[in-house]
Amino acid sequence: MRWFLAALGACLFTAGTSGEPMRIDLQTATTLAEANSFELNKLRYGVKGEQRRYRLQLRDYLPQVSLNYSDSNTVQYFAPDSRDISLSAALQQPLFLGGRTRIARQIQRSGILLQQQGVEERRQSLLDECFTRFHSYLIEEQKLALLEEARGLGESQLEIARVELRIGTSREVDYLETQLQLKELEQRILNAHAGLEEAAYALKLLLGLEPGRSIQLAGAIDRDYAGLILRGTPQTYLSLAMQNNLEAAQAHFQVAQNRARVRLSQSSWIPNVSMQASASMSGSDYPLQDPGYSLSLIFELPYEWLPLKTTLSLSNTTHRQYGQSETGSAPLVQDLGFLVDRDIARLELQASLEARDKLFRDLEFNVERTLKAHRREIRNLQLLRETVQLRERQLKILETEVEVGQAKRIDYVEAQNELLDRKLELLEAVLNLILIERSFERLLGLDIGGLAELEAAGDYP
After folding, report:
1. How far is the C-alpha of 440 from the C-alpha of 420, rounded, in Å?
2. CA 26 to CA 127: how far, in whole Å?
3. SS3 call for 200
């Protein structure tokens, strides 16, 4: 309910300030994405329907009541006509169902839990997509800012080169090369604008906003971000993943469901026992004058080869007539599907057990791989920052050499572009590190920001 109210508030805010850019932070973005996901809402409605069906099927434990009425007239030649009227009510109460109803409810409950895990899996995928698009937009903004800054520096260098060409201290080919460098930069700025527009459109589409709606994202990607310090051991993170990972939970529920199906397929030798009581009023005209009562005990054995049904009944009427009857039936088997049903149930259980074991092995491998990727990307960031620092030192030296005539201005412009490329590469590396940490959160079954909270608290399993 809270996320719905937050989404509603955000939508009202959008409607009320349509002339201004809509300011969106990550929490608002994920809230809007959830509220506007048709697929996610459809899955949630499906789970609610199954939960309601599950509750309603408690009716299987309650008595079954039936009402019957008949009114028949018989016309006979050369004899008096007759009329028979009967009104009866019957109540049948299950006494023992061999545990099959309970097992069937366990299967149904496991199915609902699987559906709930599917909803959560879809929700996490949606949050991941929103997280990626949100940060991709921020990256495109910061790339564009770097390119615009570089263009300003390039224009200054072009103006200086023009003056140097006019006074004869620079060659025309160097001046043309400086112009070419600036034109290439302008092309990159044009592509960056297009990339920013595409990122904005993709984000607005996910959030359910109008394509023409102007947005402004809160926050920025920290270029100095060095990543989280992961203090846990691989085994610690693996334990956490086995507890919280959505796929692991689905595997557990699938195994439980298949085990229940095996038990259900093996329960046909346990009988069902129920009791039925009925009362009736009969006669040839109203008001009906002849009451009757009966009590029956019903035994059913749903064994596939020879299903049996036996009924023991007692009855009496007001005319002091008492009755006792025993009936039985044993229909021959007509459906031979049961010959493979048990084998299929056992095979499905074995397959789910093997799938769960494989998933645990994959989890162990993915935890190790993600930790290595995280350490590798942190090291890559360190190297890139050192490269940027060296490029900046190189640029300062070239600036001094250009001023004293020891280097060409075009060398300085090219060094500026090299520094720009390294800064852009650094931004991409920061984004990649953030996405690796988010994927690790997902692997461990944590929400956005959960890994930082875990490392801060040090509360490992």
Report:
1. 31
2. 10
3. helix
Task: Return d(Cα 22, Cα 401) in angstroms, integer.
Answer: 48
Looking at the whole model, is its pTM more than 0.90?
no
Cα torsion angle, 191, 193, 198, 203, sign: positive
- Owner of token pair 């949050």: 127
Residue 194 burial (C-beta neighbours within 10 Å; 0-12, 13-18, 19+): exposed
- DSSP for 3-51 reads HHHHHHHHHHHHHHTTTSPEEE-HHHHHHHHHHT-HHHHHHHHHHHHHH
Predicted confidence band at 318 (pLDDT cuts at 50, 70, 90)? low
Band of pLDDT at residue 2, cut at 50, 70 and 90 = very low
- Using CA atoms, how far apart are residues 38 and 260, in angstroms rounded to an integer? 33
The angle subtended at Cα 35 by Cα 31 and Cα 37, nearest 5°, is: 115
Alpha carbons 58 and 102: distance in angstroms, whole number: 10
Closest CA to 281 of 298, 273, 271, 293: 293
Task: Using CB atoms within 10 Å of the CB of residue 31, give its burial: 0 to 12 exposed, 13 to 18 middle, 19+ buried.
Answer: buried
> Please, what are the domains in the chain?
2-457 (1.20.1600.10)
Whole-angstrom distance between the N-terminal and C-terminal Cα of the chain? 30
Name the residue type at position 344: I
Q: Which of 108, 56, 100, 47 is nearest to 257 (CA)?
A: 108
Q: Please enumerate in sequence order all residues whose Cβ is within 8 A of that of 301, keeping only pairs 6 or more positions apart, or say none.
A: 269, 271, 272, 307, 308, 309
The whole-number pLDDT of residue 282 equals: 82
Q: C-alpha distances in angstroms, 341 versus 110, 172, 337?
A: 20, 87, 6
% of residues, the chain, pLDDT over 70: 91
Over 94-131, what HEC string results?
Answer: EEECCCHHHHHHHHHHHHHHHHHHHHHHHHHHHHHHHH
Residues forming beta bridges with residue 84, ordered by sequence position: 72
Give the number of C-alpha atoms closer than 13 A to the C-alpha of residue 296, restricted to the C-beta side: 22
Which residue type does 24 have? I
A 10 A CB-CB count for 304 gives 16
Residue 39 structure tokens: 């697929």
Tens-digit pLDDT profile for residues 299-312: 888 877 778 888 88
- For residue 47, give the nearest of 117, 131, 123, 148 by alpha carbon: 117
